[in-house]
Amino acid sequence: MQIPSHLIDKQTWEKVLYFIALNDIPPPYLLVNKDVVINKIKQIGKGVEGSKVYYAVKANPDIEILKLLAEMDIGFEIASEGELELLKSLSVGPERIISSNPIKTFKFLISARDYGVRYFAYDSYSEVDKIARYVPNSLVYVRLSVSNEGSEWPLSKKFGVEIDEAANLLEYARDKGLLPVGLTFHVGSQCNNAYNWHMAIEKSRELWDLARQRGIDLKVLNIGGGYPIRYTKDVVGIESIEKRISQSIRQKFPEGVEVFIEPGRAVVGDAGVFVSTVIGKAKRGNEDWLYIDVGVFNGLMESIGGIKYSYVVGSRNPVKRWTIAGPSCDSFDVIDKEVELPEPDIGNRILILSSGAYTISYASEFNGFSIPKTIVI
Predict the structure, then answer these.
(1) What is the pTM of this model?
(2) Which value, to the nearest 10 degrees, does the dihedral of the CA atoms of residues 123, 125, 126, 127 take?
(3) C or N terminus of the chain, fewer CB within 10 Å?
(4) Who's near 181: CB < 8 A, 6+ residues apart?
C-alpha cells in the first residue's frame, strides 16, 4: 500500500501497517496512534492566551484514550452519567469536568452533583429550574446561537438562543440562586470557515456587555470545538484558527477572560484508522458495489450526515467507481458512493483513514454485528 501522505502522517501510516503485519486480530478494529493524540492536545489552545482545554469525551470514550488524556493537564467535557463514570474510574477530579450539553437528564445532574461537578451549560428556563433544583449554587454558562456556515456537521438548530434571550436567561439563573459565569457557543463540527469564530466572538461580546448592564459580570468564554481534520482534503490548521480566535478575543474582550476550548474530533479524528475487510462485491445495474465488514451502524454513522472518508486498498488492479456498503441487511447501510479505488479481492484489507472520532462512540450492535474494538498503538 502506498502512503497517502497528504491525508495521514508517515508515523501513523507506518505504525498501522506494522501492527497489521504482526497481529492476527480479525477486523474490523480501530487503531489509534497515541502520539498523534498527545501532540494534538499539546497543540490545541497553545495559540489562545488564558485557555483551558476540555476534551469532548463523546468524540471517542475509549478507556485507554481517556487514560492517556487523564495523565495530561487538561479537562473533560461530558453529557451523561456514563461518561462521568468513565472519568471517575480514572480518578479524574470534578474540578477538571464540565458539561456543555444544554439539556441534561435528572440522573446525570444527580450524579454530577454527588461527584462535585459545578460547571453546566443551559439555554432554556426549564433547564435553569432543573439545575437549581438538583445542583444548587452551580456555575452556569448560557449557550448562544451562532453561524454554522461552512461546517460539515452543523449544530445550530438544536441548541442556542439569541442575545436578548441569552441575557434574560443569565438574569433568570442569577435569580434562581445559580452563579452565571459565562457563555458558550459552537461554530459546528468540522468547521472549515475560520471566520465563524470571529463572528461568534463578536456576537459574544455584545452579550457580555448586555450582561454587565444588568449587573452580571461574566468571566468565562467557552468557544466550544469545531476544529477540522483531514478526511479527503487539506483543511485550515489549528495554528491559523487559533490565530484568528486570539486576535478576535484581544480586540473584543478584557484581559483575564477565561477561555474554554472543547476539542473532540481534532484530538482523535486523524489519529485513527479503521482496519476493515472486503466481504463482497456485486454489480447492481450500472453500479459496482463493494461490501465491507464495518458500516453505518457499527462504526461509520457520520457518513450518512455528510462526512466522507478516504479509503486505501492494497491492489494494483484497474480503478473503478464503487458504492461502498456495510455488512447489515438494512438498505440504509450505505457508506459512500462514487469512490474511486483499484478493484480489491474478497478478503483484502481496506483501511479507512481519519476515523478516530465519532465512529466507535456512535456504534451499535444492530443486526448482531459487534462493535469494533479500539486499539491504541
Answers:
(1) 0.95
(2) 40
(3) N
(4) 119, 139, 140, 141, 218, 219, 220
> Which residues, in sequence order, are bridge partners of residue 277?
349
C-alpha cell of residue 369: 454485528
C-alpha cell at 289: 458495489
* pLDDT tens per residue across span 38-89: 999 999 999 999 999 999 999 999 999 999 999 998 999 999 999 999 999 9
Radius of gyration of the chain (CA): 22
Q: Are 244 and 196 in contact (CB under 8 A)?
A: no
The answer to whether 86 and 65 are in contact (CB under 8 A) is no
Run of H or E including 320: strand 319-325
Contacts of 294 by beta carbon, 8 Å cutoff, 6+ apart: 27, 28, 274, 276, 300, 326, 327, 352, 372
Model pLDDT for residues 115-124, shown as the tens digit of each residue: 999 999 999 9
CA gap 91, 36 in Å, rounded: 24
Burial class (CB in 10 A: 0-12, 13-18, 19+), 250: exposed
Place of cell 457557543: 185
Per-residue pLDDT of 264-282, as tens digits, reads 999 999 999 999 999 999 9
Grid cell at residue 60? 471517542
One-letter amino acid of 181: V
Angle CA(10)–CA(350)–CA(289) in degrees, nearest 5? 140
Q: How many helices (H) and strands (E) does the chain have?
A: 10, 18
Residues in the chain: 377
- Indicate if 329 belongs to the active site: yes
What is the CA 365 to chain-centroid distance, rounded? 22
Calpha distance 184→245 (Å, rounded):
14
331, HSE (Cβ side, Cα atoms, 13 Å): 0
Encode pLDDT of 229-244 as tens digits. 999 988 989 999 999 9
Grid cell, residue 286, equals: 450500472
Q: How many CB atoms lie within 10 A of CB 17?
A: 16
Instruction: Please tell me which residue in 24, 91, 158, 329 is annotated as part of the active site.
Output: 329
